[in-house]
Description:
By secondary structure, the protein is α+β, with helices and mostly antiparallel strands. It contains twelve helices and 16 strands. The strands form three sheets. Strands 5, 8, 9, 10, 11, 12, 13, 14, 15 and 16 form a ten-stranded mixed beta sheet that branches. Strands 2-1-3-4 form a four-stranded mixed beta sheet. Strand 8 and strand 9 form a beta hairpin. Helix 4 (70-80) crosses helix 6. The longest helix is centred in the first third of the chain and has 17 residues, at 120-136. The radius of gyration is 32 Å and the shape is elongated. The two termini are 59 Å apart.
Amino acid sequence: MSTEDARALLATGSVCDSCLGRPFAERSFGLTNAERGRALRTTIAIEDDDDFEPVEPDSCWVCEGYCATFDAIAETIVDELEGVDFATYQVGTRVPPLVEENERLFREDGSLEPDVGESMKREMNREVGRRVGSKTGAEVDFDRPDVLAVVDLEAFDPLEFDADDAVTSHAVDVQINPAFVYGRYRKLERDIPQTEWPCRECGGSGIQLGDDGEEPCDYCGGSGYMYDTSVEQVVRPHIVEAMDGEGGTFHGAGREDVDARMLEEGRPFVLEVKRPRFREPDPADLEREINAAAEGAVAVEGLRLATYEMVERVKEHDASKRYRADVEFADPVDEDAFETVLAELSGTTVEQYTPQRVDHRRAGLTRERTVYEIEGDLESPTNAEVRLHGAGGLYVKELISSDEGRTEPSLAGLLETDAEVTALDVTGVKGEDEPFELEEFFRDEPRVGTE
């Protein structure tokens, strides 16, 4: 491209420096498009020995004045972000279809390729974004910024716009992306679900219709929940409040049964906070606050500020589990037979058809799961403690009971007597090939004493 191309573009009508420079955006790195356009206009004026006649954006037929609004739009974005804590940002722009058509005609009338240089959308994103970064000290992030400001140019008229005025806030849609806190929880009491469990009878309202109108639901006692509390209800409010968010979602690495405890190092989880205005609470303070409020029913540890990728990792990362179960047999069991059966189960792969207790919410499938190791102690002819390590997704209660033959082989089936888990504890949740807690998934530094 040359000054002859610029001459052809100038011949299309009154064009501002930014619009003139955009088709040449790939030339002379380090210049703005306005600087390129002004340089081309100056060069042509000197070559032709003509008077230099600058063109302001409000006289430009291509952008129709929008290229004069970079500063004002950036100022409006900064105002809209006041009180929001963020380290990274991104700016996006919706350009009016008429202006996009002007850009196409501009290049076409100048005999240039339609996609040469860069678009006004891209220039607007960069120029406004550069100003936002300068004013806030934040860094641009094109993948997953803390905040995204989307500018709708059609929301204001640049020809009626005074550069000293602010752009209407209706032109800027500020999206605050979620923040994430990772940790592990221990559930130290039974009959506490992982997530809140709305009452199935009243749908979580706590209200039912009686003879005299609305009254508290008999099934849940008016609480709206099947259980008094949950791990989520213990953890979520404190983290959401600390981040001044508008709500939160609990993501766990699987879940244990309601009647099972989660012990030892706990189960990984991520609390996703919606629209946080503060992103860097002290994880140690959060731990102390949550654990004090839980009064021994639930405990969290290892809280850290995490990236959004940690949600997928917690939900999808392959993990093995360790369990301890109290087992009751219908008939007396011989100790030698008990040891023989455990040895037979250890290292085997079992086939488990969807258990009856979950078949209302799980597809009817046969799943293969490996029992890495299993051991136990026969405490009486009809009672035993069983400890096992299995692949993720192993149904432990059914491994013990057989679930009327839905799990093969099983402890009950091999011993030829009914067996029931009377108490179950999860004692370990660890990644199969690598731990959950890799540094690339965290936004903060590890705390001393947490390694």
